[in-house]
Amino acid sequence: MYNLGDIIMMKKPHACQNNRWEVLRLGADIKIRCLGCGHQIMMARAEFNKKYKKIITQQNEVHRDQETFYIDPRNIKSPNQLQQGVNLWH
After folding, report:
1. With contact defined as beta carbons under 8 Å apart, do 23 and 3 qualify?
2. Which InterPro entries does the UniProt record give (predicted)?
C-alpha cells in the first residue's frame, strides 16, 4: 500500500500531462501533489483508491535530485521553529 512521501501513479494523467504524484497527507482524506506542475489535490480516501494505479517510488527510495517537488521529511518545520525568537504574545 502507499505511505506518506511515496511517488505514485494515477490511472489518468493530470492536465499538465504528468502522471507522477507525491503523497503529502494520509487520513480520511488524502492530499497529493503533481510532480509536473506542483498542483495539490485533496480527495476522499475511497475516491483516491479508485483512481490510484501503482507506487512508482517508495519514500525511502527517493533521491532528492530526481524529484524536484519532493519534500524531505527532515526539512519540514513546525510553526514554532519558523518563528524562532519571535514573541507572538507581546
Report:
1. yes
2. DUF951 (IPR009296)
C-alpha 46: how far from chain center: 18
C-alpha atoms less than 13 angstroms from C-alpha of 81 in its C-beta half-sphere? 5
Helices H / strands E in the chain, number of each: 2, 5
The strands making up 40-44's β-sheet, listed across from edge to edge, are 40-44, 29-34, 20-25, 7-10, 52-57
pTM over 0.85: no
In order along the chain (90 residues), what is the average pLDDT of each group of 10 residues?
86 88 91 90 93 79 57 60 52
CA distance 9 to 28: 20
**Which amino acid is residue 73, in one-letter code?**
P
Dihedral in degrees, nearest 10, Cα atoms 68, 70, 71, 73: -130
